[in-house]
Write a structure and sequence with these properties.
With 547 residues, the protein is α/β, with parallel strands linked by helices. Among the domains are: 159 residues, no CATH class; 70 residues, Nucleic acid-binding proteins (OB fold (Dihydrolipoamide Acetyltransferase, E2P), Beta Barrel), CATH 2.40.50. 16% of the residues lie in helices and 26% in strands. The protein is built from nine helices and 22 strands. It starts with 73 loop residues before the first helix and ends with a strand. The structure holds S-adenosylmethionine. One of its GO terms (molecular function) is rRNA (uridine-C5-)-methyltransferase activity. Belongs to the class I-like SAM-binding methyltransferase superfamily. RNA M5U methyltransferase family.
Length: 547
């Protein structure tokens, strides 16, 4: 087994080159040293492609969805415990007893004002695709409907799934197609469609049609939030297919990380329905990568488990499952079709090794990357190389340059930049997840020109004393970097900035902030790294606006 090496204690700073003492707040020109050895935290919700309703981006005017979590705590566990026993007797491995916590009286559920309209059916003409959620916009008697499973130009019967007579807008599903668009196909997945699995948004659309929808979303967000035409953004107006174009009806098995939910009554796995606690039982997920499917998770019962995170690494045979048991439940004996490492998450969200490694090894951009505890790694197997190539092409790093890799995860772009700037250059990575920082330091331990710091970008960057750099990569979570961070970055006089974005609205908003700071996009590429869903990834390259 690979040993988890302790992180390298020091490296070159991207700016000052000075180091500060352990745990102390930095003075200008210094970078705070992180403290080590803290207990491993539960993997953050780092899956940024929005596979569940929890993480799905919001449609215009949308309220954030309530978190979709299995009920926890003493009250829930017994009732939810599955009646069926495991095929084999369960291993004597009991999770810690649930600790009685001071529980606040639950707030009364908010009853939406007005009469409920759920179940009402309206014949509508479907308009443009909306940002987020895989919806298209339609109107009925002046009221906006966000309709799933529809396509622009179609005439459909839309059945309301959320909303009342007082709602500003309604959510709906296209349950009957009266006039179909030419990009519509029969969904290859038997679990896709109105009221079913919420994982894929666009199983009913040809691969080319899906990319056209993504083009429309990006075009609209650039215009609305950044006031940019595609040409002004340096974008050729395409969303590039990754891994070759697919014929209609074929589904790429791209998802190297899948979070299964387990039905508490039956112990059967499934996937969450759209914006719902309900589970759609499945026996196969068509977009799951081969390495996930071949584990045979769907073929087994999972008594006492509420969710299973499955990870199939690319470039190594590492497979990992992370189990979340119901409080107090015994872990069942895990029998799968392939060797797999097993971890569990306890009711305090701590991560525990059960069997094998707590990490997987991913191979990308000429290196092997340790990713621990289900931490962030791009889900599409070709995403890391695709994005690294786009960033390096756009930045064209030169020997001896200094670079920042912000929101650096386990160090993907920092490693790629370090190779290009060489020993005369320096890269500073900043990342807020403790475990990702430990991994990044381990992954890049051989590079003397890289330093990884643990903190939030917005808190640490102003404290580093760095006043200028040559290059910046930023790859923030879905919410984007925001006005203050962008303003700070724009003041660092970088020759070029690469902005890697998974949310076109956050990207467009931040491009507008960058313009205020004197930067403009000179190129923009969009990649279809989440086929069958409404998500995609962008890489924008920015340069100072010439005076
Ligand atoms: C989209 S991931 C990018 C990771 C990495 N660049 C990669 O490609 O593997 C965003 C990362 O930002 C981290 N993060 C989230 N908020 C942050 C913040 N305010 N400051 C620093 N890092 C943050 C997350 O833990 C996550 O690792």
């Amino acid at each position: 087994m690979t040993r988890n090496n302790p992180p390298r204690p020091s490296g070159k700073s991207g700016g000052s080159g000075k180091s500060a003492k352990a745990g102390k707040a930095s003075k200008p020109g210094q970078v705070a040293r992180p403290r080590w050895g803290a207990k491993p935290a539960r993997p953050a919700a780092t899956d940024r492609d929005g596979f569940t309703a929890q993480t799905a981006p919001l449609a215009p005017g949308e309220e954030p969805a309530k978190p979709v979590r299995e009920p926890k705590g003493p009250g829930a566990s017994k009732a939810e415990r599955p009646r069926k026993q495991a095929v084999r007797p369960p291993k004597v491995l009991r999770t810690a007893k649930p600790v009685a916590k001071a529980v606040k009286a639950p707030a009364a559920p908010r009853v939406p004002a007005g009469d409920p309209l759920v179940g009402e059916r309206y014949e509508v003409e479907v308009g443009a695709v909306a940002h987020g959620g895989g919806h298209c916009v339609a109107r009925h008697e002046g009221r906006v409907l966000f309709v799933r499973h529809a396509l622009p130009g179609e005439r459909v019967i839309a059945q309301v799934t959320e909303g009342t007579t007082k709602s500003r807008f309604l959510r709906a599903d296209a349950v009957e197609i009266l006039e179909a668009a030419k990009d519509r196909i029969a969904p290859p997945c038997p679990f896709a469609g109105p009221g079913r699995c919420g994982g894929c948004d666009w199983q009913h659309v040809t691969p080319g049609g899906q990319r056209k929808l993504k083009v429309a979303v990006l075009t609209e967000q650039l215009a609305k939030l950044a006031g940019l035409t595609p040409a002004e953004a340096g974008w050729d107006g395409s969303v590039e297919p990754v891994g070759g174009k697919l014929p209609a009806g074929e589904v790429p098995a791209w998802r190297s990380r899948v979070q299964y939910a387990v039905d508490p009554a039956s112990g059967k796995v499934g996937l969450r329905k759209h914006r719902s606690h309900e589970i759609q039982p499945i026996d196969r997920c068509l977009i799951a990568a081969e390495g996930v499917t071949e584990l045979g998770i769907e073929a087994r019962d999972w008594p006492g488990i509420t969710s299973i995170d499955a990870v199939a690494a690319t470039g190594s045979s590492d497979r990992q499952i992370i189990l979340t048991p119901a409080p107090g439940a015994q872990l069942p004996l895990v029998e799968l079709d392939k060797p797999v490492s097993i971890s569990r998450i306890d009711e305090h969200d701590n991560f525990h090794r059960v069997h094998g490694r707590t990490f997987v090894r991913e191979v990308a951009a000429g290196r092997t990357w340790r990713v621990s505890n289900g931490g962030f790694w791009q889900i599409h197997p070709e995403a890391p190389d695709t994005l690294v190539d786009a960033v390096l092409d756009g930045l064209d790093p030169q020997w001896g340059e200094n670079a920042l890799d912000l929101y650096c995860g386990v160090g993907l772009f920092a490693g790629a930049l370090a190779d290009r700037v060489g020993e005369d250059g320096a890269v500073l990575g900043i990342e807020s997840s403790k475990q990702a920082v430990v991994d990044a330091r381990h992954n890049l331990a051989a590079l003397d020109n890289v330093r990884i710091e643990h903190d939030k970008v917005e808190s640490l960057l102003p404290r580093t004393g760095i006043t200028s750099t040559d290059l910046i990569v930023l790859d923030p979570p879905r919410a984007g970097a925001g006005r203050e961070t962008v303003a700070h970055l724009a003041g660092l006089e970088a020759r070029r900035i690469a902005y890697v974005a998974c949310d076109p609205a956050a990207l467009a908003r931040d491009l507008a902030f960058f313009r205020e700071g004197g930067y403009r996009p000179v190129s923009l590429r969009a990649f279809d790294l989440f086929p069958m869903t409404h998500h995609f990834e962008c890489v924008a390259i920015l340069e100072p606006i010439a005076e």
